[in-house]
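Give me structure tokens for this 280-residue protein.
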Amino acid sequence: MTTSQLSHYGYADLDALMALMTGDEKHGPAATSTLDVLWVLYDRVLNVDPGDPEAPDRDRFLLSKGHGPVAYYAVLAAKGFVDPGLLPGFASFDSPLGHHPDRTLLPGVEIGSGSLGHGLGLGVGIALGLRAQGRTGPRVFTLVGDAELDEGSNHEAIAFAGAIGLDNLNAVVIDNASATHGWSGGVGTRFEREGWSTMVVDGRDHDALEAAFGTPHNGWPLAVVAVVESKAVRPSTCGKPSTCGKPSTCGKPSTCGKPPTSAKEHSHGNHAGALRRDRH
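Here you go.
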């Protein structure tokens, strides 16, 4: 069950919800880079319920890219986890909406985050815990930024999850060209070399994102690389960042940089490979 039937807000309302939150530490570009991925996850993919946010068999979503949480707060408000009346108090004294999300203050938030590089390792631990409990239904989704992959802790998590075939783990990488080092062949190659199924999609294309998240990956963890515009590009109105320096069209997913036009797997160099790989 997703939360779409429980909300009074839609995607078109996210810009107004985000605008309620102000301040120098809003990290607008970092936040808006995640907006479409967050919406697709909460609207179409995650099995979560604001009426029972601690349900044992819920999916777990971890925002490792926690230093720009205003898009996350807006989506949580739109989906009924957070009272929209709290949004104007963002980062004020006694507000539960801090510069970094806090799992002890907000329903539906799984981890406290913001110190980059921790979320994927925590996702591995949570996925292992669910496996140990015999819970085969819940999935773990961890959203990281491409610059976070400069942190070595991520690579331990990537290597370990691939080696043990942790197929209830899904990593979502927002690629806005922020990484210091980068990767030959793109961010996705870092995951596929460790045995992950890897998809690269336009991070503003809702249908492509949904298809990528639904990719069969039995026996392997899944990495979805969502390519968006560089954060140096100024956001436009309607909650849609501009694309490659050009204003976006409200309500229509944009195309930025050179992402594929549809979900495409990268399987150890075989870019035309099947969507499902059997372990051997």
